[in-house]
Specification:
The protein is built from two helices and ten strands; from the N terminus they run ααββββββββββ. By secondary structure, it is mostly beta strands. The relative contact order is 0.18.
């Protein structure tokens, strides 16, 4: 009888745990995410990169964004990832329509596409080696901080995730 009682309580206990795991959505209607305005000037990013093969690495990104004569933004980034030597990459991004972006990235193979809605900015591009990047940035209240959630996949399998705070 005691075993039957415990067996009946187990699913209830598991259900209670599942209810607490939910993460609040980061999406909100405001503040609106203007990617070119947010990345113009200097910003710093600190995050954690979790790879499916290998260890978790701390990342630090120093970025400098400059508006070009045609209205696009050139963003030069210096990236520190774990014990690896610092590397540099450059984005050039332009707004093609309200809330729509297109550009290039030295790490990318092909174009970068983006869209924004509310406080969200979504970027997508392919990298050398058949890797696909899906990046969601969430502008926080006050408009000075963005949370970056990036997923890297190959053949549909997630191989790395980045959680970064950009200021």
């Amino acid at each position: 009888m005691k075993r039957l009682f415990l067996a009946a309580l187990m699913p209830l206990a598991l259900t209670a745990c599942l209810g607490q795991v939910r993460e609040p959505s980061l999406a909100a209607p405001a503040p609106p995410f203007d990617a070119l305005a947010f990345f113009e000037g200097h910003s710093e990013g600190v995050g954690t990169l979790d790879k499916i093969v290998g260890k978790t690495e701390q990342t630090r990104v120093s970025s400098d964004g400059t508006r070009l004569d045609d209205g696009s933004l050139r963003l030069v980034q210096h990236i520190e990832e774990g014990d690896k030597p610092e590397r540099k990459r450059t984005w050039v991004v332009r707004e093609t329509a309200p809330g729509r972006y297109a550009g290039t990235l030295t790490d990318a193979e092909g174009p970068v596409t983006g869209s924004s809605e509310g406080n969200r900015l979504h970027l997508a591009y392919s990298m050398k080696g058949g890797f696909c990047v899906d990046q969601w940035l969430y502008l926080q209240p006050g408009g000075k901080v963005a949370l970056n959630r990036m997923k890297v996949s190959k053949l549909g399998i997630t191989v790395a995730k980045l959680d970064e705070t950009i200021r």
